[in-house]
Amino acid sequence: MLKVDEYEKIRRAYYIEQKSIRQIARERGHSRKSVQKALGNSEPKPYQGQEERTAPTLGGYKARIAALLEENQQLPRKQRYTGHKIYEVIARGGYVGSESGVRRYIGEWRRLHNSPAVSCPWSLSLGRMRRPTGAKAKWSWPGNA
After folding, report:
1. Residues 64 and 34 in one domain
2. Are 35 and 64 members of one domain?
3. Whole-number pLDDT of residue 136
4. What is the pLDDT of residue 52?
5. Phi/psi of residue 128, each to 5°?
6. Residue 15 belongs to what domain range?
7. Do residues 40 and 84 touch, judged by C-beta distance below 8 A?
8. Bridge partners of 125?
């Protein structure tokens, strides 16, 4: 993909230095078609991201995976489902997609549902921290405990 400075160099070589498209392509290491595009457009086209793709294979199994993950939180640590085990469970239920797709969905689900609770006892006001009345800050450095 050509960058803005490459567009400028190509346009300068063609319009000011009067070089041919073939010569510019040879010197710059681009195809003649790329050089012609650079001459036709003053700036490169902006990047257009693709729409988010649906998961047609996994879509019907997302509710089952979510239920297994909810159940997972109640189980003792050593008995919890791994991503591979969840894949095996839904594969027995008829899922024909890839295991990596299941693990990717599990990671997204965990990021959304398992975020740690954050609490700050101090209130922030205009960029300054105020401690609650009577509270003192304690600092502990390694080796100074």
Report:
1. no
2. no
3. 64
4. 77
5. -110, 145
6. 4-40
7. no
8. 128
Say whether both 28 and 74 belong to one domain: no
Q: What is the mean pLDDT of the chain?
A: 83
DSSP string, the chain: ---HHHHHHHHHHHHTS---HHHHHHHHT--HHHHHHHHH-SSPPPP-PPPPPP-TTTGGGHHHHHHHHHHHHHS-GGGPPPHHHHHHHHHHTT--S-HHHHHHHHHHHHHHH-PPP---SSEEETTEEEPPTT-------TT--
- Compute the C-alpha angle 138/115/130, nearest 5°: 30
As for how many domains the chain has, the answer is 2
Matching residue, tokens 């894949």: 87
Closest-CA residue to 30 (of 56, 53, 45, 11):
11
Tell whether 68 is covered by a domain.
Answer: yes
- Kindly state whether residues 105 and 70 are assigned to the same domain: yes
* Residue given tokens 């189980």 in the structure block: 75
Measure the CA–CA gap between 7 and 13, rounded to whole angstroms: 10
Q: Please report whether residue 128 resides in a domain.
A: no
Q: Is residue 18 part of a domain?
A: yes
Which residue ranges in the chain fall short of pLDDT 70? 116-141, 143-145
Residue 105 domain-assigned (yes or no): yes
